[in-house]
Design a protein that fits this description.
PyrdxlP-dep_Trfase_major (chains A, B); disordered N terminus; transferase (chains A, B); elongated; adenosylmethionine-8-amino-7-oxononanoate transaminase activity (chains A, B); 875 residues; Aspartate Aminotransferase, domain 2; eleven-stranded mixed sheet; pyridoxal phosphate (chains A, B); aminotransferase (chains A, B); homodimer; seven-stranded mixed sheet; 3 domains
Chain lengths: 875, 875
Amino acid sequence: MFPHPSLLYTPSRHFLRRRHHHYRHHHLLPASPLLHRFLSTLSHTLSHPIYTIWAANTGLGKTLVSAGLAASSILSSSPSLSKLVYIKPLQTGFPLDSDSGFVYDKISQLFLQRNPQATLLASDHTLNVSIPAAKLKIGNSFSVGELEETGEGWSSKNGFEDFGFYEEKKVGAGEEVGSELICKTMYAWKEAISPHLASEREGAIVEDSDLLVLLKRCLEIGVGIKGNGGSSVLCLVETAGGVASPGSSGSLQCDLYRPFRLPSILVGDGRLGGISGTISAYESLIIRGYDVVAIVLEDHGLENEVPLSSYLRNRVPVLVLPSIPKDPLDNLMEWFDESQSVFDSLKGIMLSSFQKRIDRLHEMPKKAQEIFWWPFTQHKLVPEEKVTVIDSRCAEYFAVHKVKDHGCITQMFDACASWWTQGPDAALQTKLARDMGYTAARFGHVMFPENVYEPALECAELLLEGVGKGWASRAYFSDNGSTAVEIALKMAFRKFLVDNKLLLDLPQDNTIDSSIELKVVALVGSYHGDTLGAMDAQAPSSYTGFHQQPWYTGRGIFLEPPIVSMCDGVWKITIPGKMNAEDVILEERSFSSRDEVFNKSRDDSSLVSIYSSYISQELLLSSGSRKFSHAAALIIEPVIQGAGGMLMVDPLFQRTLVKECRNRKIPVIFDEVLTGFWRLGVESAAELLLCQPDIACFAKLMTGGMIPLAATLATNAVFQSFVGDSKLKALLHGHSYSAHALGCAAACNSIKWFKDSETNPNLIPEQNLLRELWDTQLVQKISFHPAVQRTISLGTLFAVELTVDDYDAGYASLCATSLLLKLREDGIFMRPLGNVIYMMCGPCTSPEVCLRMLETLYTRLDEFKHEKIQKANEI
Amino acid sequence: MFPHPSLLYTPSRHFLRRRHHHYRHHHLLPASPLLHRFLSTLSHTLSHPIYTIWAANTGLGKTLVSAGLAASSILSSSPSLSKLVYIKPLQTGFPLDSDSGFVYDKISQLFLQRNPQATLLASDHTLNVSIPAAKLKIGNSFSVGELEETGEGWSSKNGFEDFGFYEEKKVGAGEEVGSELICKTMYAWKEAISPHLASEREGAIVEDSDLLVLLKRCLEIGVGIKGNGGSSVLCLVETAGGVASPGSSGSLQCDLYRPFRLPSILVGDGRLGGISGTISAYESLIIRGYDVVAIVLEDHGLENEVPLSSYLRNRVPVLVLPSIPKDPLDNLMEWFDESQSVFDSLKGIMLSSFQKRIDRLHEMPKKAQEIFWWPFTQHKLVPEEKVTVIDSRCAEYFAVHKVKDHGCITQMFDACASWWTQGPDAALQTKLARDMGYTAARFGHVMFPENVYEPALECAELLLEGVGKGWASRAYFSDNGSTAVEIALKMAFRKFLVDNKLLLDLPQDNTIDSSIELKVVALVGSYHGDTLGAMDAQAPSSYTGFHQQPWYTGRGIFLEPPIVSMCDGVWKITIPGKMNAEDVILEERSFSSRDEVFNKSRDDSSLVSIYSSYISQELLLSSGSRKFSHAAALIIEPVIQGAGGMLMVDPLFQRTLVKECRNRKIPVIFDEVLTGFWRLGVESAAELLLCQPDIACFAKLMTGGMIPLAATLATNAVFQSFVGDSKLKALLHGHSYSAHALGCAAACNSIKWFKDSETNPNLIPEQNLLRELWDTQLVQKISFHPAVQRTISLGTLFAVELTVDDYDAGYASLCATSLLLKLREDGIFMRPLGNVIYMMCGPCTSPEVCLRMLETLYTRLDEFKHEKIQKANEI
């Protein structure tokens, strides 16, 4: 299907002429979903400017603009650029219409007219042509099928003739070639209709992924060629029809080309009605994250540029081309001459905008270092070259600027899920973007208390029907996990005080009561946020030292949980020594599969009574210590303790703990900030624990990873403990943007998207859970690796604890640094939790992508181990 | 300029025929900026469906769609609807082209053909016609200027002939009128070009505000008429050209009509390239907050509806009309017959979508009550009828659903600025909406630590060049004011420990050190947020009681500040008794203007030493009380203490306090969450204090009121106290969405918008402050009002403390309830802080709007006082 790559890498050196050469098919990547291929392949160069030429509609003169820019670039006597690459990915009406052929012809003509003493090397190459179009081009004299069988001359694949048509010539009288024009049509069809229709009718459909990979190769033409004054190549990619016209597969072109996010020129509409069409097309590009550098349109005497410029507030220059002669016999030479100053200006804008972008990309790391104060970051450990410049995101992938290889934008899988917030695939991101625009325009933000508006109401409805189903009756909104936890604690404490009739004895004013001390029950290794209230609910850790927060007191009874993990191929529980669990039989502490760990039948295990008595004893100890001290709330991260090091707590222990607290009228809080919304393969991690809380906190993935929003859900009983006659009895906690419309709208979209099997291919609707994303066998293999202490795989999460010497364990450990740097080179962006590393995908990520990442990790682990041994030997 | 209103309210009763009647000009509202008029005027009915008909381009058959819908509505033998109102706000090419004339004619013809036994009353009315168009209509035989002088027959205003052309007829043989068609053209021009060009060329420009007010009146036709099955009227508003075609004034129509946010039908493009144009037009409507209910397009044999439906995922139905005959002599009767089933479907979609909207609006208050848990709200005090249903926001105005008057959507000024967050005018809201779409598409959210991306970098740059100018060198991002304060405290404490060499003595592990107690210096009445750390930094209040947060301890030295306010026309200071300031002369404690309060020359006042010694004494007392207790940070809200009751603290006191703390090496934090970004008329309230902090917190208005984002700015010295070799020395505090791209992008836009005099009409660029927004004289008058204890006006804030008996003062007071309910009826949405009420506008709000609100308040205060006296007498 693809021409030989060498042709594409250095096309001006290897001339392919039809019927002279025969090529074997180059081995290509296996067909697979689009995103699979992004991983390492979809980079593009920044060695020279590449622009996409879009139009507001068909027939507005995109190709004339391309030709004019080509003329401006390579036709002057001392050309500012020595090479122009013109790429037409999709051409219909072929061979009668060929935009690359038009550019090739026109520029040749213009060259002879303007610069006859010099020499231009020009070529036109059509790479893939549908069979009907190919037949039309060469005549219908022989059967394609036959030739394919013999392996001679022709062959066809997916309905395309795949050698293409190549033509080149030297133009002008010069001895040496001064400038070069390379024109390429990637795919061509016969009928002069939209590519999606032509593809269907001619039986020749190009998958988006194939198109992108081929385009990527075409974009490599001219990499690294530098003229005297710097960059000497300009590349133009001309789209077909309007900005949102479907491509071959039916995807809109503005969506299709988005992974490259090339800077754009929009050819506007100078006709009656053209202002509207131009603005709308501009907006379709903008809300897909494109940068539009200039708008250019043909003069139709209506001065459409005036309202356009005014509306765009001069952010985007609007240029006007002279009227195009309507006479089809006109060779346009005169028009090109008249237009040249406009094209010179346009080219100038494009070059200077490119240079500005490059300059900015280069200065960003230094500026960031100078003025940012990154959270959780020791600035001294981040030299300039370690700063990652993120140019954009598409689905799970960052587009990152790299200085090497003449500069490029390359894709990296965001395997830390940007602090566990991310979920959207490309389609959801596009949808969310449009909805963010809609919601901002419709609501911006509006006051929440005593008011109701659609996004907040729908969001509350979806939360109560989803993660709160069966127990929650109220939604309290705030901004992040930490505030959601502080609210949950206030709710739980009030409930406890009411249930235990402690409120009655209190003075009704706002004096501080020191006779009652309320404590939380929480687990060692837990993490609930960084604000003081949330911190006080967690056990002492690196985050809570006096250096960090001198006000931290740790107002809790902190229990040590049993931890589950896969070690050397087996899932097993590590039980804290305190619990005296030496007698528990092996069958009850190790498992043949992860599912067994979550099995309800474990309620009959002898561990239950061991857990129960440990819990009772700890609660008793604590309440005995001070007369007025009460355990007034239980707070746990169900199943996975994230920041604590991706620790999987034995679900049986947590279930037992909940039961014990219930028996003592201690309200139960689940902190699902990390675990909620399919992170662990189910919508709410409570489903894995097989029990329900009184209060639960959600944030992070709730908005699909767009913007901050948190919700604290509560039962009706909890809510009722705040109802009364006085405003002072109400829960007086709120943040300015409580239930802000944009966050709620993003949440509504994401919640629905992830739980709909039409949009989430990973969902098994009957079971209401995600299919296994991390290859079970490979996970097992990794757990045997000598560099690995333990592994966890559950839902979208895969984690590895690296084997280290004791002194190097924990949050401050830098042991994973070299490993992660290698993985970044492989296109996987990870962040460590000390000596624990993890990969986190989205609920819609393809298992193929996960497999590829695991494979890469395995390879790098080998190197890592090897290095360590070497180092040890050196010492 | 407007026809007599009676004509518009009940047009079918008052028939105006040219040359028969002469009307005097009805007195109209004075010309004034658009938003001024919104306040009470721009409501529209929900008694029947009103739809806007938009198109992707000109010439796609909008008028045929209108006519088809009219036919479907009122032409069947038992019509589902009895009345069709067709409004064409802007008509060019008049009188040759008249879309309302076309609908009038076609429906009459169709009626005779389909339903000759019944009777239709049809009228066509053109209200305002440009002089050239009017001349063409009636002939060029007399001079308009002459007639205007005599006041007879014709008159013209702003280039329009203002009586209009009216025609009506009874169609059919029935005796009683069964159905009615009312067609109106609001403004017409002669040339068949875009309205903005025709307006300019014919010297007849309609201001947006005039157009909206007239449209509002037209929309009132048919209010409250109910058929058997409920609503019996359908109203269509047909736009001109494409969705983003400019109107008469040059504003794009999609922006121009936005305040009504009518549900929409989009006429798509069935031609080659039409998929793109249709999707782009759809998106232009969506990112302005419109609801598009259906797309309808003409069949051109390309099946454009297939990719459109697929792309829109069936959210929006796409209907296809038969090809329209190209022969201009075709009377289209056959085409209308063929199309009728499509129009019936379309009408069905429109009616059911309308009904769904109405049903939802009605159920929302109840659902909200059932599942929301509003912050700071005693649910028992909010009955269903008190819940405000907010349908949308446009600039400073909510569009609110009211059940009364057959149901309507009405505008209310958001005078609580939605918890002090709001700032955008309509143009900024549109810009922000597009930018939210762009940023979501380009970035979504990406990981912040160790990374850099454009919105975060630009935001940090703007913060340091703006509110942090001259002192700050680092930006730390978080989610809200409360987290920004917790971060600020951690920064200040570390700085204090380093400066005072206390860190060296500490154990380097994470044990809790109880030998050192750090306290904040803060003011009584201050408020810094609702998370525990922020609460502990404030003095005990209604928010901090044991009921609310049992963990609150109040770790501060809380000083009592002197308060400034205007009482009975004079600005004066109330100095706490403790300060022994009885001897201070009157000139030093009262001021002839507010500016005097802020004058630097007050540094020579005798108050300075009084303040100084009070501060010294309090700090000494506190540190003396425990050996290891240190005042380790000062935190103040500069100038205005918001939640404390809109208290204006004497700036001289705060300046003195800062100086005293500096002398003691106590780091200074300004909590500018409320005061930042022009809230007080300057970009940063530090400018009013004439001194700078070490650390400052910003949030709320920073994003222009879009979404949560906060920043804690710090000096380099503060930053350096976290730099070291260990990660554990870094500031380990962060939230998932730290520096999220959408928040940063919104902040960049807003920060630039408010400080640019081209976009902010209130800015006095030379002085870098806002002009006075609250009429000084009226504020003074209000301060004399017997119901008023004190007033404050500063920047965008105006506040009043109501005179109440002592027992009724404070946060829990409900005394303002009746007053605020009246003000809501007047279209002003306020929320009380106990017995303090306030109005807050945006940095761009017109002083005229503020004046109107003050006037309204004054009137209602009179009533309020009167009621109170009556009640007192009754008792």
